[in-house]
């Protein structure tokens, strides 16, 4: 079962349509127009050899302007209603995409169980050859994807969707649901930033949220990864977050200045409370356990908890602690799941490539 957008409006008390839907769709069409039709067709052609999906996006270096390097791996996220059924069908069509031990020992059931019970609900097939390119695709249950987008319960794919992606399939309007995720990302980033900063600082902070506590950053990721992502896709970040910054400006949380540090935010306690209130419920709940919370009775009679904030700095440190813990657990679980899913040879190849980039960035 999927949640329709009308139902999503009331899920966990989150208001989805804070922004003008037509404006978001118009901007999205503009972003998609920036991708050459030939490139989009090439990326979409891979889906013809897979079972049908409800959601598909492409991310990573493929999105960098003027990227003509076909040696780099193309990354896909595929959303499906039933991973067990989908992997069963895909094994008949593309058994060579999977680690041989998983195919022979348990098939689709083992693949799904490793993703759900060891990892964070995503199964990745790396080093898949298609049209002289290397691809990696991750398969996730649609309900799990929606929950992570709305509540950051795993903060895995929700973190990915806070960065630029190109949608190839979106049958269930995940693009619109993701507006909640992006709004929360802006609030979290503002809470961690000083009163004056640049637009690039803001996008770098948003981008860094999903790497806080990531164990791979210690030894297997480029230390300059965040800056490279933001500088390489700055225009995409701008178009992606423009309506959310305008909303902050309308609420007097943020204003643009002509100075070199072209953004100034309200750092008052009331503004900080407003930012915290825009974070997902699971994050607020964890913060409430650490800082304390008071019960608020709404006009509709609904009781909700409000995090007790003594100062902006304390609130920022608390949120950072909660997010680091969440990312650390998810990244560790997914690393183990990914090693099992890829098989020893592919996993070693993938890790060695990552470590080579990491060491080059440190030298």
Automatic annotation (TrEMBL):
It is a peripheral membrane protein. Keywords: Lipid biosynthesis, Lipid metabolism, Magnesium, Membrane, Mitochondrion, Mitochondrion inner membrane, Nucleotidyltransferase, Phospholipid biosynthesis, Phospholipid metabolism, Transferase. Coiled coil: none annotated. Pathway: Lipid metabolism; Phospholipid metabolism; CDP-diacylglycerol biosynthesis; CDP-diacylglycerol from sn-glycerol 3-phosphate: step 3/3. It holds the Pfam family Tam41_Mmp37. PANTHER family: PHOSPHATIDATE CYTIDYLYLTRANSFERASE, MITOCHONDRIAL. This is Phosphatidate cytidylyltransferase, mitochondrial. It is an enzyme of class 2 (transferase). Belongs to the TAM41 family.
